[in-house]
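Q: what sequence does this backbone want?
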């Protein structure tokens, strides 16, 4: 076989080697089927990759939202407890100031200390 075959049609019409029993009559259909399989496999791979990336992005977005909501919830819980603590602290300071003003106005000059609550 010294001649170079330039297309599938030429190969399909020629008996390449009759002694080996090779039948090339279905070569274009077989080659088309193989090409279709290769392209379909590549398209599936690309599709799965795109969907995997989308799923990953969505997962990270949801995870970030959960973390953000947890932090906000903790901030609100700690904010309420710390603001309640500040209100108690303000009330205690008012009581201490009221007590010290009452002691100054009573004319009694004894030194009494008010224990912090």
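A:
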């Amino acid at each position: 076989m010294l001649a170079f075959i330039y297309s599938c049609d030429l190969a399909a019409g020629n008996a390449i080697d009759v002694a080996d029993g090779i039948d090339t009559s279905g070569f274009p259909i077989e080659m088309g089927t193989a090409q279709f399989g290769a392209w379909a496999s590549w398209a599936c791979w690309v599709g799965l990759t795109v969907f995997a990336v989308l799923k990953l992005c969505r997962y990270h977005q949801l995870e970030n939202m959960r973390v953000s909501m947890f932090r906000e919830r903790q901030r609100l819980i700690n904010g309420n407890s710390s603001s309640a603590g500040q209100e108690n602290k303000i009330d205690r300071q008012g009581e201490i100031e009221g007590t010290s003003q009452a002691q100054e106005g009573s004319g009694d000059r004894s030194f009494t200390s008010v224990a912090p609550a």
